[in-house]
Amino acid sequence: MRKNTKDEIIRTTAKLIQEKGYVGTGLKEIIEQSGAPRGSIYYHFPDGKEQIALEAVKWTREAVRSFIQEELSKHEDALIAIQSFILDSADRFEKNRYFVGVPIAALILETSSTNDNLRKSCEGAFETWSLEFMKKLQENGYKESIAKKLGTIINTMIQGALVAALASKHAESLRTTAGILPLIFSQQSLQK
Amino acid sequence: MRKNTKDEIIRTTAKLIQEKGYVGTGLKEIIEQSGAPRGSIYYHFPDGKEQIALEAVKWTREAVRSFIQEELSKHEDALIAIQSFILDSADRFEKNRYFVGVPIAALILETSSTNDNLRKSCEGAFETWSLEFMKKLQENGYKESIAKKLGTIINTMIQGALVAALASKHAESLRTTAGILPLIFSQQSLQK
DNA sequence: GTCTATATTCGGATAGAC
DNA sequence: GTCTATCCGAATATAGAC
Asked: How far apart are CA A32 and CA A37, in angstroms?
């Protein structure tokens, strides 16, 4: 029935970190919401809370990566593909508040100056996602250096838009971000 | 005697929230680092931690607002003024890690789904800062609706760049953001 | 693999003296 | 305005039975 207790703990932790942050998420709550056996936490994660968070980051990184990949494959054109990825994300944000990818930003702001392990793993997630945008751009003929820069910018803009969306409780900032992408592409594309 | 005991608590809290987040910041640490008398916390802030955080947000909002205003007044041209504001911020980020304005994003991600008072005050801070950019743009002849939209976008991009900067521990994302502003302005300005 | 019980530390908050 | 003492709950983590 349950695929795996361990996976369920990881997934629940990713969700809870998004809602309440890293410090604000208690092991007690992880156990309750995941339905995991109370005594199994330190069996699966001997290093405790940090280890769970690191695996939650890894899980989030891959979940978002494959989601980006899937969405981008729906359109040939990189600009249109990335735009519709962002617009889809906006819809998701409004439907249920759970949006994978946010917990990474939360972790960074909480731990960037106190826990270098977590900070580095979050940095890696950002790089992974930027790379997906970059690959799509290269498929469209952008040369490597431009594609890399644009990929990073896009990821950064999305993160900012997500923070703004959480602050205002609506996804307009994401839609606006999608809307200004053509302006950035139009000039950069001259350097293809 | 020290009229600034209260102010010192507020300022210290703003700094600590940036470093460790809202939940991660303890009253004990606030007292220690601010040098405030131990027994004075609940005298000055009868509503406890949340009240201190709310005042820290207000303080940060105004500190950043006047900093933006001051920086933008150094150049006539809105694009150049905003660009140099962002570049100055990048320098500050690298010199000492303390950068006012970040604690707001930290608070949003931690409390957006658990504490509506704090969320709203953070939203207000974003609006205040966006308004400063908007005013500068209007002085440059942008019509209100365009200026407002651009002001919001700029604030959003800066927030995203800050998250990326904290993740990577360098300010390149801020400089890149300054670099792509002309692309956004160049087209939007047609609608002056 | 899972459970219970517990150790230990720490959080925010209150009461009352001065 | 400030201090000390203290409460209460919650946090992470460990030990050892089953």
From this structure: 9
Residues B101 and B60: beta-carbon distance below 8 Å? yes
B41-65: buried (b, 16+ CB within 10 Å) or exposed (e) per residue? beebbeeebeebbbbbbebbbeebb
Q: Which residue has the tokens 């949003």?
A: B108
Q: Is the pTM of this model over 0.90?
A: yes
- The arithmetic mean of pLDDT across residues A59-76, rounded, is 97
How long is the CA B49 to C1' C4 vector, in angstroms? 35
State pLDDT tens for residues A6-49. Answer: 999 999 999 999 999 999 999 999 999 999 998 899 999 999 99
B139 within domain boundaries = yes
* Domain carrying residue A101: 57-191
CB contact under 8 A, B163 and A156: yes
CB within 8 Å: B158 and A160: yes
A179-191 confidence digits (pLDDT tens): 999 999 876 554 5
Under an 8 A CB cutoff, do B167 and A112 touch? yes
List pLDDT tens digits, range A110-146.
999 999 999 999 999 999 999 999 999 999 999 999 9
The pLDDT assigned to A190 comes to 46
Is B46 part of a structural domain of the chain? no
The answer to the question of residue B25 being in a domain is no
The count of C-alpha atoms lying within 13 angstroms of the C-alpha of B185, restricted to the half-sphere facing its C-beta, is 21
Identify the CATH number of the domain in which residue A63 sits: 1.10.357.10
Q: Do B21 and A19 touch (CB under 8 A)?
A: no
Nearest to B19 among A113, A158, A164 (CB): A113
The answer to whether residue B115 scores a pLDDT higher than 70 is yes
For strand D, give the nucleotides within 7 A of a protein CB. Answer: 1-4, 10-17
Q: Which of B159, B185, B190 to mutate to test the interface with A (most CBs of A within 10 A)?
A: B159
- Scan residues 110-149 of B and list those with Cβ closer than 8 Å to A: 110, 112-114, 119, 122-123, 126, 149
Work out the average pLDDT over B147-157: 97
Q: Give the C-alpha separation, A111 to A21, whole Å.
A: 10
Residue B74 maps to a domain: yes
Number of domains in chain B: 1
